Predict the structure.
Amino acid sequence: MKLGTGFQMKKNILVVNSGWMDHLYYGRPFNRFGNVTDELALIDRNPESIRCAVFTGGSDVDPSMYGHKKLPLTGSDIKRDHHEKAVFDKLLKNDIPMFGICRGSQFLCAMAGGTLVQHMFHPSRHDLRILRDGREELSGDEQRVIAVNSTHHQMQVPPEGAEVIAVAEPRMSYTYDYAGEKPDFKPEYEYEVVYYPNIKALGAQYHPEVMPEESEGFLYYQELLEHFMDEQS
């Protein structure tokens, strides 16, 4: 990875917290890329010091954030959504790259103009098929499959223009509770890792922060960070 002047100036990894000490928990995969902090005041005081921001896991994203009605199994926190939307707007205004983990990836999907499956079956461990090396499409024989974890029951449905980086392998759910009025909705894939170029954001629905550092899922997330941080720095 090329570490130029931009990297030297932008050294902070800002974790948008949802709970006490979350920045240390979710910041674990980012430690080698900068100083992990939860100091939101940096966006106003010194945005040039922020290399990227990270949105974390937790409660469901409220469907009002992407124009759908709330379904029975959706448990959202609209106060959190509004807070993170205000933070997102500042990050976008300052052209700061963003990353999302689990709920954070779903939030970024909604901010990019996408929608969510509000309920689906998803086992705690599954395989991930990697369709792109960074943003470059891979042919079938170049693609690889790795093992990851996952605990989400919602799923990002990317808007047009988004780039699907990796998908669940194989399809695991027969029920996709999407918007109530579309009971037969079936996505092309179960979208696990997606890049949203219109907001400079990458979302991954699995949880690298709890995986061993030698695991395939953790090492792959490091690859993603190297590529997208290098591209955007």
